[in-house]
């Protein structure tokens, strides 16, 4: 008579039953089928992000290589920091860096607060119809490309444009503002505000709508006017949103709007319009890929340092704020 097989104690104590892998895989398949629609919607964006944001990172090697097309990026000889030395000693790079810093600083001072101001003003408007009209008019320029907006600016600010016609009407001397180098920075700032103020105010206006209205009722009961309500309720309630948006903005500090500046550049204002992005483009067109890659790495590192530094300062002020 054959003996019955009894499983060992070790087998009985095993925490991983043989049926668990099959159950887990079945659970995963069920989850994939349940959310297949969401996954299909997610994949195109993910693939585009992967293709245009992560795959190009391979090109960082160009800044440290003596690139030869026949050898490819990986097999080209190493050049060390030679291209960075060329970068920081070149007069054209220093001019582009100076213009970039000036434009970036002007945009930070004037264009970053503009959507905040508009959102606060719209929040104080009690007529819903008027508020919707202002929002529509201010949002509209965001949906036009800078090619179209630049054409409008050239027509309006040209020698025979509408702005000069108004100056002649009131007895002032007209000028071709688009060709004047001294007018380039103000035009950049004003056109940026015009294009982005409405769209940028959406987030702040949404944050304002979440403020508890009883705070304003209590302020009115205490005799606070509109300005005091804005100063002591509205702005403090907006600060978390402002801090997050500032940290996101400062990461692109040296990205001052290539498409805008490229379309507004003329031969006479090029000394003010040459920025880091146009510097990179110029060297890419002349097949000096290494110097263009070095300039791109420099711009990215500056943005990284600014984000980390500003986030650290914010955390010193309030540990609950910041990106991480």
Task: Report a brief summary of the structure.
With 324 residues, the chain is an all-alpha fold.
Protein architecture, described:
The protein is mainly alpha-helical and 324 residues long. Helix content is 69%, strand content 0%. It is built from 17 helices and no strands. It has helices at 9-12, 20-34, 36-54, 72-75, 82-89, 91-111, 113-124, 128-139, 146-157, 162-169, 184-209, 213-221, 226-250, 258-264, 270-273, 276-285, 289-317. α6 (91-111) packs across α11 and α13 (226-250) packs antiparallel against α17. The chain is globular, with a radius of gyration of 29 Å. The N and C termini lie far apart (71 Å). InterPro entries: MetI-like, MetI-like_sf, UgpAE/MalFG_permease. Its main location: membrane. It is a multi-pass membrane protein.
Which helices and strands, and how do they pair?
Blueprint: H1 9-12, H2 20-34, H3 36-54, H4 72-75, H5 82-89, H6 91-111, H7 113-124, H8 128-139, H9 146-157, H10 162-169, H11 184-209, H12 213-221, H13 226-250, H14 258-264, H15 270-273, H16 276-285, H17 289-317
How many beta strands in the DSSP annotation?
0
Cα-to-Cα separation, first versus last residue: 71 Å
- SS content category: mainly alpha
* Arithmetic mean of pLDDT: 86
Number of helices: 17
Q: Looking at the structure, what is the overall shape? A: globular
User: Helical amount among residues, as a percent range?
Assistant: 55-70%
Order of helices and strands: HHHHHHHHHHHHHHHHH
Cα-atom radius of gyration: 29 Å
What proportion strand? under 5%
Strand count, sense and closure of the main sheet? none
Pick out the low-confidence regions.
none
């Amino acid at each position: 008579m054959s003996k019955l097989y009894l499983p060992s104690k070790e087998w009985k104590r095993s925490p991983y039953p043989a049926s668990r892998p099959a159950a887990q895989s079945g659970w995963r398949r069920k989850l994939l089928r349940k959310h297949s629609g969401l996954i299909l919607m997610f994949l195109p964006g993910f693939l585009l992000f992967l293709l245009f944001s992560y795959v190009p990172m391979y090109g960082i090697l160009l800044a440290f290589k003596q690139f030869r097309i026949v050898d490819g990026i990986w097999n080209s000889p190493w050049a060390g920091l030679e291209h960075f030395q060329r970068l920081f000693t070149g007069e054209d790079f220093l001019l582009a860096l100076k213009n970039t810093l000036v434009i970036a600083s002007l945009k930070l001072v004037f264009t970053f607060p503009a959507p905040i101001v508009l959102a606060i003003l719209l929040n104080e408007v009690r007529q819903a119809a008027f508020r919707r009209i202002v929002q529509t008019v201010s949002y509209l320029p965001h949906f036009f490309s800078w090619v179209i907006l630049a054409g409008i600016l050239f027509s309006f600010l040209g020698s025979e444009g509408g702005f000069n016609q108004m100056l002649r009407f009131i007895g002032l001397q007209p000028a071709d503002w688009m060709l004047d180098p001294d007018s380039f920075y103000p035009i950049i700032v004003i056109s940026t505000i015009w294009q982005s103020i409405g769209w940028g105010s959406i987030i702040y206006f949404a944050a304002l709508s979440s403020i508890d209205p009883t705070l304003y009722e209590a302020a009115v009961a205490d005799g606070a006017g509109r300005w005091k309500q804005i100063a002591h309720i509205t702005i403090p309630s907006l600060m978390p949103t402002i801090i997050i948006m500032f940290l996101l903005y400062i990461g692109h500090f040296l990205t001052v709007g290539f498409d805008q500046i490229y379309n507004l550049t003329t031969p006479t204002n090029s000394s003010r319009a040459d920025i880091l992005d146009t510097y990179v483009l110029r060297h890419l067109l002349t097949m000096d890929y290494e110097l263009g890659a070095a300039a791109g790495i420099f711009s990215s590192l500056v943005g990284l340092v600014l984000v980390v530094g500003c986030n650290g300062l914010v955390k010193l002020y309030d540990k609950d704020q910041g990106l991480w």
